[in-house]
Design a protein that fits this description.
This protein is α+β, with helices and mostly antiparallel strands. The chain has one domain: Nucleoside Triphosphate Pyrophosphohydrolase. Helix content is about 25%, strand content about 35%. It has five helices and eleven strands, in the order ααββββαββββαβββα. The strands form two sheets. Strands 1, 2, 3, 4, 5, 6, 7 and 8 form an eight-stranded mixed β-sheet that branches. The longest helix has 17 residues. It is globular.
Amino acid sequence: MGEASHYKMAPAFRLKELEAIRLKKKDPKKAGVMALFYPDAEQITHLLLILRKTYKGVHSNQIAFPGGKVEPEDVDLLATALRETHEEVGVPADAITVIRALTEVYIPPSNFEVQPFVGFCNKAVSFVPQESEVEALIKVPLIAFMSDANLFTQHLTTSYAENVAVPAFKLNGHTVWGATAMMLSELKDLLKQVL
């Protein structure tokens, strides 16, 4: 199910890349990220995304889940996702109940294989964004995330492709595409089964 969900949000050129690369992955770097649900002060469920800072790199100024690359002290990718979530948005690991892992996503431009996890906090959270990495917090109400009205196709020019049509989410005024959209697609499909 995971890859089928991913492919719904993958641009056509990315599908070709993924198929070719599947045969010859080059020892990808590993990362863990957290799809974190939490209630706000009014007990409305939200999903947390972040806007990354602008920097020299392929993921500059993009919407993402809190998370990042594996460090030597991480015992596994879940530990990576929990540590990075604490560092980037200030939510300690013991405040997060982890539900499950999603399907990993390979990101060709940066040669990262990302393992997403789904977690939730039982109560409202005080976020503390990491100034060096997080430009803004994007707090998406669950009802907006689940609405098909927020799916569309946009033409984008990236560091590696010009004027390509990409399926995307429009969440809180932000266009979310690429690997994050692929992970969101799987998450949305799973939630549709239980909501």
